[in-house]
TrEMBL record:
Taxonomy, superkingdom: Bacteria
Ranges of residues in domain Metallo-beta-lactamase: 101-294
Family matches, as Gene3D superfamilies: Ribonuclease Z/Hydroxyacylglutathione hydrolase-like
Protein name: MBL fold metallo-hydrolase
Length: 338
């Protein structure tokens, strides 16, 4: 496509504060969000290549029956302590300064993929949720049934979402309040004492046949005077991690994706492998590293337990000083990380 035929604009929520100086907003090229400055359209011939190729770890993967352990119970929902509780894949319950968040809730099977790991309690018991944090619209991060269930039991909940995600949310439940933000924008719904920002990620969007990159993707930074937490969403490695640290400072707690990275020819521009996740964490000058996006759904070629083994090896070598690998449903208290 010739450059003269490109229609370029920059989009942000003009009602929200933009914290990056002179940032015009997210670049949109011919109606599609750019991945930073450039369009990224995944080449789906690589999906065909993946389906037709043999996984060199096929036998190892077949023998690997690892699933994350699960701590049963819902006491964490009624505690008054600030904490992070992994619910599998990229779903976390977070209480921060007494405010509660649920990230990318996918609590059931997803299309064509069954959930392999359990939950600490039935989805209907998830209560006392103030905010839903949605990093992007892929179906393993934004699930209609999960959001409907949680909102039914948390009518006070508000969704914080990327630009142009509103159509998806209205189709899920027209009564769910939401606010959209672009990169480096501060949501204005948070109560005093806590700040919530939408930040970059290196990823893409597609949910239907004709909607490639029509909805933005990103990560979240949650700050108080005592502690800063980073939820990476889905991302590949890129210079955005340095930019995030430059603007928001070091991250005390990093919730980092470490799975769905093989084969690399298909996954490397969408996801982080464990070594890349640790590199990103170090660029963020991270404190505690909590892995996610592994063990819950079978989405790729690596054996289920490989991400955990690699992280433990990296930590043993001294390159990952703050590793915590919780069970699903296990509360990690934030005051331990401040």
């Amino acid at each position: 496509m010739q450059k003269k035929n490109l229609r370029i604009r920059h989009l942000k929520n003009d009602r929200l504060e933009t914290v990056k100086p002179n940032y015009r907003g997210n670049k949109v090229i011919n109606g599609r969000f750019a991945n930073g400055d450039e369009l990224y359209n995944p080449d789906f011939s690589t999906v065909l290549k993946w389906q037709l190729s043999r996984n060199p770890q096929r036998e190892e993967k077949k023998r690997d029956d690892y699933t994350p352990p699960v701590h049963k119970g819902n006491d964490f929902l009624y505690s008054d302590q600030d904490m992070v509780v992994w619910l599998g894949h990229a779903s976390f319950f977070i209480r921060f300064n007494g405010v509660t968040f649920l990230t990318d809730p996918v609590l059931y099977d997803i299309p064509m993929v069954k959930r392999r790991a359990g939950l600490p309690c039935p989805p209907e018991q998830l209560r006392n949720i103030d905010f839903l944090l949605l990093s992007h619209g892929h179906r393993d991060h934004l699930d209609k049934k999960s959001i409907q269930t949680v909102f039914k039991n948390n009518p006070q909940m508000k969704a914080l979402a990327p630009l142009e995600a509103g159509n998806i949310l209205r189709s899920i439940d027209p009564h769910l309040p939401y606010q959209e933000a672009g990169w480096f924008q501060k949501f204005d719904l948070a109560p005093d004492g806590i700040e919530i920002y939408f930040a970059p990620a290196s990823h893409w969007y597609r949910r239907g046949v004709l909607d490639m990159n029509k909805v933005l993707w990103g990560s979240f930074v949650i700050k108080t005077t005592e502690l800063t937490l980073f939820f990476a969403g889905d991302t590949a490695l890129g210079n955005h991690f340095e930019e995030i640290e430059d603007i928001f400072g070091p991250m005390d707690v990093c919730l980092m994706p470490v799975g769905a990275y093989k084969p690399s020819f298909l996954m490397s521009k969408s996801h982080l492998n464990p070594n890349e996740a640790v590199k990103a964490y170090n660029l963020l000058r991270g404190g505690t590293f909590i892995p996610m996006h592994y063990g819950t759904f079978d989405l790729s070629d690596e054996p289920a337990s490989e991400p955990v083994r690699l992280l433990e090896q990296i930590a043993a070598g001294g390159m990952l000083r703050g590793l915590r690998i919780p069970a699903i449903g296990e509360p990690l208290l934030l005051h331990d990380f401040a």
